[in-house]
Amino acid sequence: MAETSRFHHRSTLDYKRLIPSFLTLIWTLGFFLIIIWQRTAVDRILTFRRWSSPPTRPIPKLRPVVFNLTDFGAVGDGVTVNTRAFERAVSEIEKRGGGQLNVQPGVWLTAPFDLTSHMTLFLAENAVILGIDDEKYWPLMPPLPSYGYGREHRGPRYGSLIHGQNLKDVIITGHNGTINGQGQTWWKKYRKKLLKHTRGPLVQIMWSRDIQISDITLRDSPFWTLHPYDCQNVTIRNITILAPLFDAPNTDGIDPDSCEDMVIEDCYISVGDDGIAIKSGWDQYGIAYGRPSTNIRIRNVVVRSMISAGVSIGSEMSGGVSNISVENLLVWNSKRAIRIKTSPGRGGQVRHITYRNLTLNNVRVGVVIKTDYNEHPDEGYDPKALPIIEDISFIGIRGQGVRIPVRIYGSSEIPVRNVTFQDMSVGITYKKKRIFQCAYVQGRVIGRIFPAPCENLDQYDEVGRLVKQSTSHNNVDTDYEV
Question: Where are its TM segments located (predicted)?
Answer without folding.
Answer: 18-37
